[in-house]
Amino acid sequence: MATIKDIAQEAGVSAATVSRVLNNDTTLAVSEETRTRIFSIAEKLQYKPSRLRRMKKEEQRSRQQIGLLMWSTLEDEHEDPYFFSIRKGIEARCEELGISIVKVLRGNTRAEMQPVHELDGVIVVGSIDEDDVRQLYNNRERLVFVNHSYELNEYDTVKLHFEQATRAVITHLKALGHNKIGYIGGTDSVHRFSGQAEDKETEEPRRLFFERELRELGLYDESFVVKAYWSSNGGYDAMKRLLKQSTRPTACFIGSDPMTVGALRALHEHGLKVPEDMAIVGFDDIEISAYLNPPLTTVRAHTEQMGRAAVQLLLERIEGREAAVHMTINTTLIVRESCGSLL
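Now predict its structure.
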């Protein structure tokens, strides 16, 4: 059985150097040629091959350099932590794997949009036009799209199971006796930064599945659906518009928890009680949701898991997987007091 001393003798270096290289000691000042020669000799001599393969893979991963392309600004992430949580998951998984995020691009800052074709891969968070993305990074096999509005069959993708989430909300509200159910949510767009075309508005999945589900049940009322900005102010204004109507829903599904914060304020200002006068269900399960008055029933979107999954898909591509994979992350309905039931 080969030893570190045998490898050192053939490589012409000390046993200590071999040991540190094989243990992926990043503080060791040794040339890439020497490092490669040591691994090659160790493989040839069959030095603990399973352990060696693992260490070599870790060493290779530590050289990977990837980019992150996001449409949301830091201010957007502060207002609505949905995309911040995805980014947090990406960063955490990269740190665990030793992969470096060397470039973070924000799509709404066009001045930053310089090609990054030299990177080992790019993760795109948010709905950004694929043609614009390809101008920045031209290797389609090393692109992963997270939370994109379109079906992108040629690329690896990660998205939430919005259909499952919406059905769970409606099923729960119906079980509580609600047949007049409203929806408040924002709009979705596929963003362009090339300057060659405008953003393209798309169907927002929560509203799309809400309408489809209620139509099938014979309960859909278009007047109960209000579009607004994805913000607390947007939720506040949308609920005020809904409350001006002569006929109101008895329950409302709101597309994000920050919007729900504003909607609850509007209800309180009108002297309406939650859930007695209107049951409320949000979406995201941000930290404040459990501390609202009343505590918010909401859909937990496992956004950090989305980010971690994206890194895993990209790593598989880098390591040789050929076929595109589309990953759908399930959600969890968290039942609290705002819909009138504790399970």
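The first strand starts at residue 65 and ends at 70.
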